[in-house]
Amino acid sequence: MLFNSAIFIAGFLPVVLLGFFLFAGTGRQRLAGLWLTLASLVFYGWWDPQYLPLLVGSIGFNYLLGGYLLKRPSRLVLGLGIAANLALLGFYKYTGFLLGAADDAFGLGWEAPSIILPLAISFFTFQQIAYLSDAHDGAVVEHDFLNYCLFITFFPHLIAGPITHHREMLSQFGNTENFRPRFDNISVGTTLFVLGLFKKVVFADPMGAEAGPVFAAAQAGAALPFLDAWGGALAYALQLYFDFSGYTDMAIGLGLLFGISLPPNFNSPYKAHNVIDYWSRWHMTLTRFLTAYVYNPIVLGVTRRRVAAGKPLPKRGKMSAGTFFALVAYPTLLTMFISGVWHGAGWQFVAFGLLHGFYLVVAHGWRALKTQWGWKLDSDKLIHKVPAVALTFFCVVIGAVFFRAPSLEGALNMLAGMAGLNGVLLPTSFARIPGLEPVAGLLGIAFEPGPFFRPVLGLQIVLLLVFCWSLPNTQQFMGRYRTALGWRPTTAWVQRALPFATWRPSAGFAVVVGLLGFFAMAKAMSAAPTEFLYFQF
């Protein structure tokens, strides 16, 4: 079931809210929790009921194992539990890819089986691995079965995140103040849901319609001209941005309708001034999980081995190349490799992860050099920030090509067009720009229509990039009220200049949001709903 579908908006959500208000409004907290759990299972099973036992079985297995680890911590049992979760994920997500790769490498004649990837398996697997690890370490403070089930299945985050942590969710489920209808939560939650739906159907989906044929042509081996390739790549980058931003807003808004705050997961990543900053803004809960449960243990293990071997540890402003590789480059590349393959099974996802790992290593290395030289790490001057943001965005778009392409070959073919290896074609209307025709003639650039790029698409891309870079994000827009869990957004420059750039409950905002919601819902219900991009992971 999709958040942007008629059955969800007009059917499922009103019924679930009515039942929740009935139970929670009369003080029956446990029944309200049970109602939400059952509703979440229906939400999951709506896609394909045959995978519901898989989710329920995974929940039961990890709950029981977590209880055992709480009473009898054992590294062996923890390792077996993590291995079982990864084996389940690996079977559904990577069997076909691994068998196909082995067949390509050794000509074994194997035929990869067709295995359908269950929805949300990557998300609930990571959540439960974190629970097992913390149970082993004694960091789990609550082990209630109903609350645990709701923690895993709560439908606003179940399918595509945020990747919630047991500590931040179980405490909310156990708080009677949360499980009661509140006007402020309903008002803020509804506004967030409407804004997210608008981003999805008005911004993301049209950009996806532009990007899809370009990537399909690259996959088919077409030689894409420069503007066509870049138009497709930028359209996809904007589709991904608004799709994930819209989903995050809708998920957080839905959580608030039930009195639950989900963790922040999106914070204007295209405003990042380096790739380190980017990953602190994009899919923030995935970054948090990978840092806590992958990167930090790797660094800790390497550090212990270096201490045991008598090797030096880094000091501020002083780090040898060997120390940098062992404590920064190696853990970063391995973590981002895992991030890449978590997103999907394919060599293009391996390339995506390693490319971002390389970006991060370069960024950390540059910061280490600046520290060693006594330079300021980050500049507040516009003359420095603008090129930094532009360079970061350029790097992210290159990475997004691997993220979107159906294969590594398709991604490389797309990049060839973006590099200008297939020539440049300018739309015929550009010939009317004074002085451009002679310059184009000197460079050997022809004025003729390309297969995909149109001036109107270029204008749409520019306007949406201006939107991304200049306006406050949703959390800033709603910054005076409770939105994401523990989130304290900074004030955007537009909000300091224009008071109406900050939301508050008023008749004016109600009318504007109502009009946006009417338009978005009319558009969403006028055609078959499109999936959110992160549903495939």
Automatic annotation (TrEMBL):
UniProt keyword terms in alphabetical order: Acyltransferase, Alginate biosynthesis, Cell membrane, Membrane, Transferase, Transmembrane, Transmembrane helix
Keyword Disulfide bond: no
Alphabetical list of InterPro entries matching this protein: Ac/AlaTfrase_AlgI/DltB (IPR024194), AlgI (IPR028362), MB_O-acyltransferase (IPR051085), MBOAT_fam (IPR004299)
Superkingdom of origin: Bacteria
Primary location group: membrane
Membrane topology: Multi-pass membrane protein
Position of the signal peptide: none
Pfam families linked to this entry: MBOAT
Residues annotated as transmembrane: 6-24, 31-47, 53-70, 77-95, 115-133, 145-163, 214-238, 244-262, 321-341, 347-366, 386-405, 452-472, 503-522
Subcellular location: Cell membrane
Keyword Acyltransferase: yes
Annotated PANTHER family: ACYLTRANSFERASE, TEICHOIC ACID D-ALANYLTRANSFERASE
Entry's family note: Belongs to the membrane-bound acyltransferase family.
Protein name: Probable alginate O-acetylase AlgI
